[in-house]
Amino acid sequence: VTANPTTAGSISKEVLDRLRAVVGPVGIIEEPNDIAPYCRSWRDDWQGRVPAVLRPLTTREAAQIVSICAETGVAIVPQGGNTGLTGAGQPHDNMSEVIVSTSRMKRIRDIDVVNDTMTVDAGVVLKDIQTAADKVDRLFPLSLGAEGSCQIGGNISTNAGGIQVLRYGNTRNLVLGLEVVLADGRIWEGLRSLSKDNTGYDMKQLFIGGEGTLGLITAATLRLFPKPTASETAWIALDSPQASVALLGHMRQQMGDAVSAFELLSRAVIDLLLAGVPGHEDPMREVHPWYVLMNVTSQGAAGSLHVPLSEALAKALDVGLLQDAQIAASGAQAAKLWRMRECLSEAQLAAGGSIAHDISVPVSRIAEFLQRADRALATAYPGIRLCAFGHVGDGNMHYNPVRPLDWDWPRYKIERPTINRIVHDIVSELGGSISAEHGIGRSRLAELVRYKRPVELEMMRTIKRSLDPKGIMNPGKLVSV
Ligand SMILES: Cc1cc2nc3c(=O)[nH]c(=O)nc-3n(C[C@H](O)[C@H](O)[C@H](O)COP(=O)(O)OP(=O)(O)OC[C@H]3O[C@@H](n4cnc5c(N)ncnc54)[C@H](O)[C@@H]3O)c2cc1C
């Protein structure tokens, strides 16, 4: 992969001196050993090199950095918690970029319980936002495995999904306003807290899911929700993915919007978890081919959900939609079940590595997708360990086949393009998307050209050229110009 040619070439000492003067010695990292963690991805599958990591404290400092970079043609890689999974937050290898990390921008600027909004700097860690909302008896519903490290600027730039999309939508639905440093260094003050604003193009939407390619988000106004007053978690055994789709319909019929999370897990991933990650145990005595981990929550004075949930599950059992079910007896048991879900990435690493796909198809076609993809891969790669789990309520599966036991990782890795092609061609035929929530970054850039309509690609390029004419914002990611 090469960086945008307009930014190639190393960065002069004079430019680095100017950047250092903006942030001071505490706001710049230049020691190669200290820079290294910022240049490596979480899964260690992307690395790059930069002469400096800049850590502005304020929007003003961030704007000055971008101004200098725009003037001198230096490319910027914005970075939050560096938990992204597509290589979008890592620099290239040519020392021609700087990383701008928001890790010092940690201010919660305002919490407004009348408007149900919170305004925060881009570098606030997601978990801290959840905690701050909780303290004022509100819920910020974005929740994902990396929530202890990822930052809201990164969540917004990847339009992150997570486990509560079914009920609350993805990050796009949770953002009311943004403050952004544009690619020429100007600050767009768009921190509105309006639910309704029909005054033209909704510019914030371009930066949400924009992967840092159009500007640097410095702050956001977020939507808060009433805190659930009742919550129950169930572990449900099923005989097929088809049954999970039918069960989802049944549960929504019975409990409406109370169904807030609905995760499908294959037995194969549970086996990987139990074998590779200490501290977990099988929730059921009997082994079943598929499981659903479900949360139901309610607000207001509705009271406990235990009885309605038990009744809805009993009805599902009666009509053969499920094989077995148990409701967590305590908050601690519920947390233990969710911990299993959160540790699945670790389980794949422990099993020797997987080739990840973050796909979505219409919910009604999930079973067909799994059947076709499993058959195609098992035929092409005997011994491959099929590994599927995900947010079935959103049609989003993490379909991550693990290498055959007698293959080593380098041999398996070579097959990545072929395996991707097999999986993504099926997704495309079913009317799905090759990236449901992780984004495009570098890992799916070439494939985007194959699967996205040419007119759509051209519209994306037009937007990129117009908002970032010098191509300095995260070049070589998301959109190829
Ligand atoms: C264990 C684990 C579980 C995960 N689970 C989920 C999940 O369930 N759902 C999901 O959607 N994702 C998930 N992810 C992926 C990842 O956590 C999310 O994509 C997260 O939103 C990234 O946030 P970050 O702060 O780490 O961003 P980074 O990795 O630092 O950056 C991601 C992208 O955003 C850009 N960016 C970062 N900050 C800014 C900014 N201020 N302005 C402009 N651009 C910026 C970067 O340039 C890059 O393109 C998971 C990752 C891990 C490691």
Describe the structure.
This protein is α+β, with helices and mostly antiparallel strands and 481 residues long. Helix content is 36%, strand content 19%. The protein is built from 18 helices and 18 strands. The protein has helices at 13-23, 32-39, 59-72, 126-135, 152-157, 165-168, 171-174, 204-207, 241-255, 267-276, 306-318, 331-342, 344-350, 366-380, 409-414, 416-429, 445-451, 454-467, and strands at 28-29, 53-54, 75-79, 97-101, 108-112, 117-121, 138-139, 175-182, 187-190, 215-223, 225-226, 230-238, 259-266, 290-298, 324-327, 358-360, 388-391, 396-399. The chain has a seven-stranded antiparallel sheet, with helices on both faces. Residues 1-8 have low confidence and may be disordered. Bound molecules: flavin-adenine dinucleotide (FAD).
